[in-house]
Amino acid sequence: MSWSAKQYVAFEDERTRPARDLLAAIPAVDARSVIDVGCGPGNSTQLLVERFPGAMVRGLDSSGDMIEAARKRLPQVRFDQADIANWNEAGPFDVIFANAVFQWLPDHATLLPALVDKLAPGGSLAIQMPDNLEQPPHRMMREVAAQGPWADKLAHIAGQRTALDDATNYYQILCGCSARVDVWRTTYHHPLKGGPAAVVEWFKGSGLRPFLDPLNETEKNQYLAQYLEALKPYFPVMADGSVLLPFPRMFIVATR
After folding, report:
1. Whole-model pTM?
2. Phi-psi region of 108 (alpha: psi -120 to 50; beta: other; left: phi over 0)
3. Which of 3, 95, 160, 226 is most buried as measured by Cβ atoms within 10 A of its Cβ?
């Protein structure tokens, strides 16, 4: 799956806000080794550099475009392109930070305790994941994919993202291997200028990528036009010309 750093950072303030909220929940620690897993264009990594000035901060991402943008943003930080699904460094790390990445990976019951095992004593695993698969933008992605001439091409896409567990299950997964587990869910309501078309632009930088990648240019344009029409009933334009995008996210901080 391809990613565009330019498209992603079109809504950088909104996308960085959950990373700030996640970072604020990490307990105080004299961190020496910090890694940003799924660092994207480096916006979350920059927060980590500011929070932990004495640490060696690194970033990992599977997208070459994202890594290139991150290196330009923070030339003093080491960024590596890597398949996060197969990341196997032993650590120990004082902070493992993952902002909006693990929703793409399966088997959280195995993955998350394995990540806690990479922590130093007192270190924290901090995760934020979009929890919006049943929100209209994602439901309409799947409906448009199933109803168009591209249905065969896109038949396998809907299952690429992991459906999240609820807070209780995440707590139970982590409480046996962690000294402290903090789990919460927040719904942000982002005002976007430009009507429903702005919602399309938002998701072109994230959830739409798997649906668009297999299509040729003509099909992409047709898909996006149908997707826009499908969104309009859910996003009425307000008096100031904006729409509100509800965006639920799951947060987890597990401290060893």
Report:
1. 0.90
2. alpha
3. 95
